[in-house]
Every structure is written in C-alpha cells, then in structure tokens.
Amino acid sequence: MIPGPASPDHRVLLAMSRRVINHRGPEFKRLLEEIQEKLKYVFQTKNPVVILTSSGTGGMEFAVGNVVGDGDVVLIPSMGFFCDRFARIVESYGGRVSWIPVEWGFPVKPDMVEEAFKKESNVKAILLVHNETSTGVLVRDLPEISRIAHEHGALVIVDAISSLGGIDLPVDRWGIDACVTGSQKCIAAPPGLALVSVSERFVEEAKRKKTRSLYFDLEAYLDYMEKGQTPYTPSVPLFYALDEALKMIVEEGLEARIRRHRKCSEAFYKAVEALGLEVYPREPEYRSVTVIAIKVPKGVEAEELRKVMSEKYGVVIGGGHGRLKGLIVRIGCMGNVSAYEVLATVNALESSLAELGYRIEEPGRALAEAGKAL
Amino acid sequence: MIPGPASPDHRVLLAMSRRVINHRGPEFKRLLEEIQEKLKYVFQTKNPVVILTSSGTGGMEFAVGNVVGDGDVVLIPSMGFFCDRFARIVESYGGRVSWIPVEWGFPVKPDMVEEAFKKESNVKAILLVHNETSTGVLVRDLPEISRIAHEHGALVIVDAISSLGGIDLPVDRWGIDACVTGSQKCIAAPPGLALVSVSERFVEEAKRKKTRSLYFDLEAYLDYMEKGQTPYTPSVPLFYALDEALKMIVEEGLEARIRRHRKCSEAFYKAVEALGLEVYPREPEYRSVTVIAIKVPKGVEAEELRKVMSEKYGVVIGGGHGRLKGLIVRIGCMGNVSAYEVLATVNALESSLAELGYRIEEPGRALAEAGKAL
Predict the structure, then answer these.
(1) Same domain, B313 and B179
(2) What residues in A contact B184, CB-CB < 8 Å?
(3) Which tens digit of pLDDT belongs to each residue from A300-313?
(4) Which of chain B's residues have a Cβ under 8 Å away from the Cβ of A329?
C-alpha cells in the first residue's frame, strides 16, 4: 500500500514471460498499435502517446526537454517534492523557473496562476503536478488553469504520474499539451515505462527547437511510431505487461475504475477521521484520491508505525519525503486497490497505532466507517 | 537469430512474474547488492556498474553526457551505424566530433588513433564501438588503443552493448573508463536496462561537470547506490530478470561462456565459407564473434532471403542498416546461442538460398563444417 508502484495483477505479471519478439518486425508493430489505441482511451486523447523505456522521471524530462531551452521562462507552482524535480529538469535544460508560491498541503489556484502570468512575459510553459504524491494534494482546477495558460500563449505540461487512470483527466478536453504518466501507478503495470501524450501545439513547438537529449528526442519517437516501432530498443516484456494492464482497464471501463478509486479513497478518509487522525491537506476538497497523506499523531514515531504495520500486519505504507519526513505517513490508493486492501490497511493502522500507545476512542469504528463508504 | 535482443531463457522470463517489491525497501537493497556483485564479475571490474532503466542508447547518452559538454573534442572512429549514433549524442551535448576515418568493414587500428591524437589537442575522450553490430566488425586492439588514449589524457568510453558477456572484455585491465552494455544481448536478459561501469577517473571528471540530463546524471545514481537504491523508480521485474540471467552466467562461468560464443561463431563462419558466401568484414581476424555479417550473393534479394528463412524455417535474421541495406544479412550469435541454433540457422540459410536460385556447390557441406567446429 505504498504510493506506487502498485501491485500488478497476475495476468499482467505473467504476460511478461512471453517470448521476446523482434522489435523491428510485424508482430511488434501490431502490439504497438493495440497499445496505442488503448492508451488513447485511457488518456482521453486523439493525439499520439509516446512510450519511453524509462521511469516517470524520464517522461518528465522528455516533456520539458523537447520544448524548454536556454533562457525560456517556465512557471511552476511549488506544491511539493515532485514540483522541485520538475524545476531541476527545467534548470538542467537551461530554462528559468518562475515559482508560483503555494503553501505545502494546498493546491495552486487559478487566481495565483493569473497573477503569475501578469508578472512574467513570454512564459514558455506552465508545469503542474496534477496529484502531488509527496503531500497528497490534488489540483482540481486543472481545466481553468489550463485555459488561463493558453490565453497567455503558454504550453500546459502535466505530471499525472500518480493520477492518470485513477482520477478523471480528459487530456484533450482540458487542453493539456503534454501529459506524463508512468506504467506503475494507476495503470497498474510494472514500473519501467513512461507514457506521454503530445498535442499538435507541443509537437510544433518541439520541432522548432533542437533538444539536447537523443534518448528523449520527440521527433525520433514520432518518426518511428509511423513505422510501428520505437527508435531505440523497447523493453518488450514491459510492453506486453502494459498491453495486458490496459486490457484490464478497458474491461473494467475507465469510468468504473475512476469511481472505484474515489470510493476507496473516501473509505480511507472516513477511517482516518474515525481514528481521530488529521489528514495532511488542510481542505477536504483538495485531498488526493490516490495517495492518502496522514499526519502522524503526537507520541507516535512515523518510522515505528510503518515498521509495526509492515512486520506485524504485512502492510507496507510510505513515509514522508524531505521536509515531511517523520511528520506524515502515506497510503497508496491506486491501481488494483479494492475493499480488500482498504479494510486490511485500516485494520493494520488501527492495531499498530494502539500498540504504539495511541488512544483509539472507539475501537472498530474506523473499519465500520470504511465499510460503509465502500 | 537477429543481432539482439537475444532470447532469454525461461528461468529469466519467469523471474519477472515475481511480486513487484517496494524499491525503497530492504528487499530491493539486497537484490541490488546481489546484482552488483555479479555485474562486477561479468565486467571484470572493481568499480561500480550503474544500472539505468533505459535501452542501451540511454547508456551511451549517460556515458557521454556526464563528461562531454560545450566545445569538448571527442574522437570517434567511423566504423558504422552505432559510431554515428555516438556522434549524434556528442553533438547534442555540445561537443565536437573529430572523426577517425575508417573504411566500413574494417576496425580502427592503433596507428590511426595515434595519428588522430597528434592532430587534435585537448581531446576529452575517445568513443569506441567494441563490436559494431551494423558491420559485424570487432575492434581487437582495444587494450592498445586504450593505452594510447590514456597517454594523451583522454577518457576511454566503450559501447560494448553487443559484446560484453560474450567476448572477453576485462574492463579494469584494459583501462576502460566507461563501458556500456544492455541487458538484452550477450547477458541474455530482456531489453530495458543499460549497464555502465565507471572508473574513478570518469567519476572525477563527471563531478567537475554539470550534466544537462537529470535522468542520466551520474552523481544521483552513485549517491543512491550507497543507500541500495536507484534515484528514480527502477523496473523491478527487469532487475529480477537481470539477476537471474547473471546467475546463469555465474553458473556457466564467464570463460566457458566466452568460449561457447567463439565456437558458435567459428561454426557460422565455416558454414558461410562452405556455402561459397562472402563475409562482410574483409579480414578474418576482425570478424565479430557475436554478429555474423554476410554479403548477399548476386541474384538473391536480401529481403526475400530473410522472408523465406523466417516464414518457411522459423529462423529470423537481421538485414543491413542504412547504406548496407540490401547488401548484407546479419545473424546474431549471442546470449544462449548453442549448437541447436547454429545448425538450424545454417540449414535454413542453405535451403532458403537454394530455393531462391542460388547454386550450392556441395549441398550439406555447410552443416558438416559447422558441426565439426562445434
């Protein structure tokens, strides 16, 4: 129950044991076409979705490096660890980051974006983390923010690594120019592939610019995509697994999948409240659907809590990143998450807290509340 | 029988169906340590071997981008397609390529390297493709070339993607500063991981330089390696597969594995001669051990030959890259290659050639010659 990688289903894991085929042959071409079609469904886009053999960070670098170069100004709201990572990539490609100050635990709001555009001219792009895994905060105003950015002629680049496939994100309708996700979170395939949708505008901008990376050069991927190939050797077993995981999404239906994610997260939040614990994001409407960030109560050590949950109950949860280390714990609620995982995790959390001396007002109520929400 | 990816053994493929573990936990740390130890054995090095979730090209970019920057001069012998790829990476990182002209089908020789160093001062590195897959040529003078480069203060960066694990390449003894390979060739794991050994000198040079890629930044990999982690989400199933493939190398023994590769390639070359065909590399001593490049005889179409071999005999071989397209075919001889693969391929080649109107002087002699060599 860590905030990703999610546990892939057995069907997905076993798909990897198929024969490694020639990635320059007709079989691979068919596989790629089938994956592409399903990715368009999950991304809710008509545009191509580039598949990189890399982690999600590689996808972030791809989305930045193809359009941002020396001296380009990029807006980034400072909402957590992964916003900082975006900034480091921008700087490594010679761009200048103009921060939109946001207090951790809160999301960026449209008026802040509007104001930031007034202060800076010639902004190349706004970089947003849709679901900031480090703080458990979800940016719900993405459509409005995207509209503002386009009014100012800026590209909208979204890190949806921990949300796409589990939270509604209609890429075309919301006007997102590059949407990045990884294979290993809500899509529930194993880690190792980054998926990036690219709008026409993004492609045009990238063509005007020479990127500095060969491995992450958009044009090469688009050229080879037409041949039904990738420019460099793809990890064929990961492509098999992705195909199988996408099949499972199609079978479940994207809407039903998003509903399941929402239900499970509601169950978690109800349980957390019943335990008398505080959620890290201050406003309920900005709480993430896929990562539940909980403040560790006074008197309990975060690492001790995680250790007891893992060793005694077999439930592994995440800790806090950077300056939130020791202050919060984080529960992943993504991929194949269901009542089984929610209830077992709530039970382990309650029992472990009690064991570490935390006083539970009404033992068992957290489970009951979670059950009702499921 | 394409020139990679090699077909992984079932043991290796099935290893991927194990549970995806937390890559920030103790289990992954142990896995990484075990892989590291075996990689040192295969690379014949005491230095760290960085593992990237990317194709081999990502590994080439990593080896170049961490030490080459604006205005740096880099020597590259022009021996084929993958030398060109190295050059494109150098240029994308702002470096200047000083070509050592080499006729395709021949390897670079030490006197050419000596001469190139006389013409250029302040050479940052020499970039060598150990085994040029596009032409089937092996650089046998690597130790001597490496010695010359070090005398001139240059780093030695080697693309050993299609050779390491199948051809002897004692990285430390030959003074190679960065040796790049992929998981999918002679190591016979599935594609998706790049492996790069880095010498102390390479690390020092990289630390003096700020690289432009976050995903391929050496310092992050070295920092996380100390914690038993990778900086970005690793493809856990590919790590399982790599571990299993490395176990198989340890069980076979590196020396025996190298001997097996040599024997199989000798069998192929004997058979090719018995069929009256010409090998592409002009001098027998520079013929590759892992990729057999054969000129297509007059009157036979390369693509037709490949098609018949594949459709009628189930043996898939490679064609020529770029300007060698249509002129040569290429047979992979790597990974788990054994008498089974060699004999079936020779038989398919002979039968397909005969079917396409090529006159075989002594039918069956090619198989007999191959058999004797095995």
Answers:
(1) no
(2) 20, 233
(3) 999 999 999 999 99
(4) none
